[in-house]
Amino acid sequence: MTPAEDMDVATKTERPRKLNRLGIGALVVIQIAIVAGILLGLNFFAIEHPVRWDLTREAAYTLSPATRQYLAGDSIKTRKEPIKWIIAMRRSSPFYERIRALSEEYERFSNGKIDVEMLDPLRSPDRTQEVLAAYGMLLVKDMIIFDAREDDVPALEESDQGTKTLNKNIKLTIAEEFVSYTTADGVRKISGFRGEDVMTARLVEAIEGRPKRMLFLADKSQLNSTDENSPAKSLESTLLFQNIELIPAALSEMKEVPEDIEGIALIAPKYDLTETEVEVLKRYWNRPQSALLVLLRAGDTPMRLRAFLRENGVTPRRDRVVRKTDDALETRARGFFLPGMAFTQDLAGQSTILEGATSSLEVREGAEDLLRVKIQPVSLIQAAPDFWGETQFGKGNEAFDESEDMPPPLFLAACVVRGAANDDRLAAKTSRMIVMANTDVLDANKQGAENVDFLNSSVNWLINREALSGIGPRSLGTYRLPLLDAQISFINRVNLIFLPGFFILCGAMVWASRRV
Predict the structure, then answer these.
(1) Which of 120, 157, 181, 332 is 20 to 30 A off residue 440, Cα-Cα?
(2) At what angle do helices 449-462 and 231-240 cross, to 10 degrees?
(3) Is residue 232 domain-shared with residue 379, that is, in the same domain?
(4) For 125-129, 138-142, 204-208, which range has the lowest pLDDT when averaged over its residues?
């Protein structure tokens, strides 16, 4: 075969096949349809099962476990009518985006029991006029209206004297309440954002209609209740965010505790109770439903009060919780929360520091003589294993002496339940008590976040509002970046000279390349 013939044969054998354009087109159409179907299915799945991620470092847009638990509780899910939130706020407000995102989280976790409406008074004047007519107020400031009415009662109620007030289930909050301030060198500055704190507090107030009332036995307390920075004022402020009103009262002037009182706070008693006062306290404790918050000075428990507590399974010891570290005596009590009760489950295993002086408690947990009369003391906080109860504190050369000191384990806080706590039908009709031999836990300057959560959870448990117990919201702080003058000057040169110069150089290079 000649070379020409070989070339002709090779050309015939290597000739490409004719493209099957119809098959390729059909395959492309099928692929596009499959991709479109997948995207459509994912879109429908996302609509039915939305998931949100909070990528902020502080989880600024994530509701706390306590708030989520409350939104899932009976107070919300058993409502017949949704709670209306009218957020009358300008979009130019610095709080707008945070409030909008948080309110959407409330709406989502309530499963439709909260209906949020964003209202810009400047952009929606007609709707603004409707709100003005319905609630009888001027929207002169950015605010939120919490409307928890379940019937058709009017928003405005008129008294016999002719004054008009909002319905008890309607609460307001202005935008300035979402910010906390500190004063330094006579200058008032923003120190943090507490949007969830305020929104949850107003939500609870709107649902309950009126605050719970707790008596503060001022005549038995050695705490200063007039100083704005005192532990007593700190307790009052803390309870206010739980919709609990702390009312100063004198036990010496009482024959009976009023029926509309949800609890009693006995804080740092200075003098012992008289026999008559002990009887008043016992009659209150023996009611089907009562609540006692008892915070004592370390090693300083009056005799009759100590006997009353001992009868209920908790005895404050006359010691000081200490430990030795590197030949130094540490007087701050370190411990961890125990999982004994439902209201401390979120805190269980977490460590805590109790500033100031702390005494240990003898807790007769599971004692048969107490169980026979339906009294159940339970330990809540246990000291770290290397702490002991020093009975000779202050005399110098403190060291553990097994003949007179209290060995570990030491308990720093306890609760007492009197009644049929294990019967779900009667669990709400029980008497409850919290006991701790430390009062510095109320000092705002010495409180840890876990101590605030413990105090809030304990108080809500006392008044049978367990849905608000757990880890609460955190205030978002402001941060100041300390920079030297030389660093600020360098940043200014980068922003004003180097960055613009870099972009000008890039533009010149592109222009020159196109000119070639």
Answers:
(1) 181
(2) 60
(3) yes
(4) 138-142
